[in-house]
Amino acid sequence: MSAKKTGKFEDMAKVDKACYEREMKTYIPAKGETKKKFKDPNAPKMPPLALFSFCSVLRIAQKSKGCIPACPLVMLQRNQEETWYHSHAYDTQSHEKKAVEPKDRQEKDVVPYRGKESLMRPKKKKKESSWLKIARKRRKRRKMKWRRKKRKMKIKMMNKLLLEQLFFLFIKHLPPCTQLAPFKEKKK
């Protein structure tokens, strides 16, 4: 690009930067948690999975053969994962054995770290506010009321069904001349 063309874009960038600085002076960040959680750099690292050692062995084998595929890295990783999941147990067993040792080491390292963490920041019991207690009691009462109502409705339905069955049994045993026809439609 020539100097004339680049100068035009540089001027536009200066204008944008001035506008950005002006707006940042009046910017007020949103309330609430916007920052990331603090991650302790001294925390023990997670151990590598058996799959990762399997993938590294596959990569080394492909490099030594000189047959590295020309596909994107994501596709290569997917293929490696598929071979891992579809391979037999005896193929993956050696990699799983290698992954056990770092896992045990990490578990041993975590125990003292967690002890230090609890000494650094003692956990405070959260006091439940009065309105939360009231809300919880109301919710419990509503639940109990609803259960009672459901139970009553169930009993009513059972009684109704029982009465209907008894009514039809009673009608069947009456002599034919006295039987009632409750479901016959009236002629107009």
UniProtKB/TrEMBL annotation:
It comes from the Eukaryota. This is Hmgb1 protein. It comes from Lynx pardinus (Iberian lynx).
